[in-house]
Amino acid sequence: MKATIMHAPGDVRYESVPDPRIERPTDAIIKLSATCICGSDLWPYRGISKQDGPAHMGHEYCGVVVEVGSAVKTIKPGQFVVGSFCISDNTCPHCAFGFHSSCAQGEFMSGAQAPYARVPLADGTLVATAELPNAEMIPHLLAVSDVLGTGWYAAVAAQVRPGSTAVVVGDGAVGLMGVLAASQLGAGRIIAMSRHASRQKLAREFGATDIVAERGDEGIARIKELTDGVGAESVLECVGMGESMDQAMGVCRPGGTIGYVGVPHGVSFDGQKLFFSQRRMLGGPAPVRRFLPDLMDRVLQGAIQPGKVFDLVLPIAEVAEGYKAMDERRAIKTLLRVE
Predict the structure, then answer these.
(1) Where in the chain does DSSP place strands (E)?
(2) Which fold has domain 2-146+287-337?
(3) By the 8 A CB rule, do 57 and 111 touch?
(4) CA nearest 90: which of 26, 185, 144?
(5) Which residues have C-beta within 8 Å of that of residue 265, sequence separation ≥ 6?
(6) Distance CA 195, CA 260 (A)
(7) Is this prediction's pTM over 0.90?
(8) Residues 156-174: tens digit of each pLDDT
């Protein structure tokens, strides 16, 4: 088959590779219904994250099971499944505690920007639907695999509660999903920090009550003004840069909580400042598997439509253009059609 390979920064190719096969008895092979490009894929694309040689790309996926290993008991061929970008057994102490992204047997999914993919630890990683979904549901279910699950974790980690005030730092796909999550979790006020009209519009559609376009000290001052000088009790940091973390720290009230899910680049903390700020912090790779059943149910019941975050749809053979469009901020998130 053909698959997406990143050879070097800016060099993405859709080229022939060996078909995936069962390598361990706990594996499954799935035929993807759709896949997509993640904002984190742009770090190596831009040369910010280093990689050793060509890399098989893609960690967001949903599709139909075509083959399972001899030890797979609950996942069956023919089922439609969604899986997390973090592989997990769903039984270890960390999984039982709700942190599947720290699974004792865990690893990160790769190779999903392709027509077929191997999923390790299939019983623990994949969640099946009761029946095959229709084509209109595919983008929304695909979003659950990572971008919605990560935005949801940001909101949960930030302790968004009914009636609370939440600030979302970052207007990329994860930030927009953080807005949706905060709305679903009952936040009374959701302030989205965004300078782009198309993203502001989507943030409003997902539940933002206020938009703040300012950044830096001006952005902090504007949010303090909106919150009567107090700040927000819940802040979702969805970028991972030093400036965005400073923004999150600056708008979080004492005793408030920052949920951070942006992969850190250039983030550091001053110990004294952190000590006296009295902010809680929780984040890291999202334990999406914890949330999959609930989020899939919300999608299938029509309660949420996270697939609206895909504003560019391309055939998978044009994956290089999808990367370029996201890198140039011509697209929020690219869905890749798998024929």
Answers:
(1) 2-8, 11-16, 28-36, 55-56, 61-68, 80-83, 86-87, 107-108, 116-119, 126-128, 165-169, 189-193, 210-212, 232-237, 252-260, 280-283, 312-315, 334-337
(2) Quinone Oxidoreductase; Chain A, domain 1 (3.90.180)
(3) yes
(4) 26
(5) 43, 48, 49, 240, 241, 242
(6) 20
(7) yes
(8) 999 999 999 999 999 999 9
